[in-house]
Design brief:
about 260 residues; alpha/beta; Stationary-phase Survival Protein Sure Homolog, Chain: A; nine-stranded mixed sheet; 13 strands; about 25% helix; globular; binds manganese (II) ion
Length: about 260
């Protein structure tokens, strides 16, 4: 007679992965490979590149879900749609945390408002553990060490499981595009700011009609010590704790006075 298997202390965390680069993205594959040791991985990601989708839901057309592989799904929607679906009815079980990425490109400062990568993590804030967005600071000619970003994600997930953080926290993580062993370490940062974006690029379609391309993000403006920009420029992994509440609490009194309502 065989004895029932006994596996004490086996950690079975259910981690939901998503991204905004689409389900075929190399960064997502690297992330899935790196986090498998923690338990069950489910991937729900857009069917195509939705970079810049921000925190948007698709409400005018239905969402369709395809299955690329075991526990690997793609959705005809935004990153937010993907995570929303995954935690609101696509599955008959609950996930414990969301990890989004590894994005092909930095999400620093103002980028977080436009980022689908960050939005996917934020959409996971209703789960019981902090959500993480991981971005690799690539440019057009950089080598794209996605495995570095994935290893950093693994380090942070291990750290969260060992020492839980406030479950409403979202960690926005930016990783220099270099081999893991060449990272200088991890550092807590605040978001910096960019200058306004480059102008839109005016062009014409084959029929001569005017079209526009949204221009590049603006150059860094507030990028001094303590910011996410500064950390990655110095070779550190930037870890910025984010919150969903955009209220400028310090201004409540001033706005009350401005409105003529005594504080
Ligand atoms: Mn992207």
């Amino acid at each position: 007679m065989s004895r029932p298997s006994c596996q004490p202390d086996v950690l079975l965390v259910k981690i939901l992965l998503s991204n905004d680069d689409g389900y075929r993205a190399a960064g997502l594959r690297a992330l899935a490979a790196a986090l498998g040791e923690f338990g069950a991985i489910t991937v729900v990601a857009p069917d195509r590149n939705r970079t810049g989708a921000g925190h948007s839901l698709t409400l005018d057309v239905p969402l369709r879900v395809g299955k690329a592989d075991e526990s690997f799904y793609y959705v005809t929607g935004t990153p937010t749609d993907c995570v929303h679906l995954a935690i609101s009815g696509l599955f008959d079980f609950e996930h414990d945390m969301v990890v989004s990425g590894v994005n092909d490109g930095a999400n620093l400062g103002d980028d977080v408002l436009y980022s689908g990568t960050v939005a996917a993590a934020i959409e996971g804030r209703f789960l019981g553990l902090p959500a993480i967005a991981v971005s690799l600071c690539t440019d057009t000619r950089s080598p794209r060490h996605f495995e570095t970003g994935a290893r950093v994600a693994r380090d942070l997930v291990a750290r969260i499981l060992a020492r839980p953080l406030d479950p409403t926290m979202i960690l926005n993580v930016n990783v220099p595009d270099r081999p893991y062993d060449e990272l200088r370490g991890l550092i807590a940062t605040r978001l910096g700011y960019r200058h306004r974006a480059e102008p839109v690029v005016k062009s014409h379609d084959p029929k001569g009609r005017t079209v526009y391309w949204v221009g590049a993000a603006g150059p860094q403006q507030d990028a001094g010590p303590g910011t996410d920009f500064h950390a990655v420029a110095q070779g550190y992994v930037s870890v910025t704790p984010l919150q969903v509440d955009l209220t400028r609490h310090a201004a409540l009194g001033d706005i009350g006075s401005w409105l003529g309502v005594p504080p």
